[in-house]
Design goal:
single chain; about 230 residues; alpha+beta; nine-stranded mixed β-sheet; about 30% helix; binds zinc ion
Amino acid sequence: MRCWICGEEGNTGEHLIKASDLRYYFGDITNKEPVYFQKGEKSWEMQSANSKYVKSEAKICNSCNSNKTQPYDKDWEILSKYMQNNHSRLLSNGKIKISNVFPGRKSEAMLNVHLYFCKLFGCRLAAEDTPLHLEPFKSSINGTKPCANLYIEFGSWDISNKFAGITSIQALEVNGRPAVVFWFYIIGRVAVYVSYIKKLEITRLKKNCWHPSSITKDVSFRKFNT
Ligand SMILES: [Zn+2]
């Protein structure tokens, strides 16, 4: 299978939930301490952070996996740990002060976080039947530039059992047409709402969401479910 980013021979299935997130939140995942991974309506018992169930069926090549997208992975890892460690405070403040997470490199690091979710969204589009084209995702990653329609939001996920997962890709219609295509990335009590907004002129679709074009110092952190 070809790498969906550059078209070279693809050899890796990207983790749909990052291995470092799994290890950080759950500790060692073994067959004695399995963790549930949920994808859409289905769930599987993972016996390691590298379980095949957690990897995308779409492939990317070694070069895209390392040189091109590793900075995205690293900055997401920093933000993800920060949200896990400061969960209650962030929830009571309703926001994350980005300069506390990435002192001195706020814009560059947050663009990397945006591109991390651009990569994951692309992996899902390349493997699943969805109403979106891959092209904008591909060109953002190849050009290290923001994807105009991709907005993300951070928040808290209320869980009864410890699990990690991604929700099914859904579309919300406005006047009978898809206006936003979205899903959630969930790692224990922290979640990310990942949305591709087709109708950017409808401002309520972007409420609380973050995009690299925004110059705000804070990003929202709210309760997604109760
Ligand atoms: Zn590639």
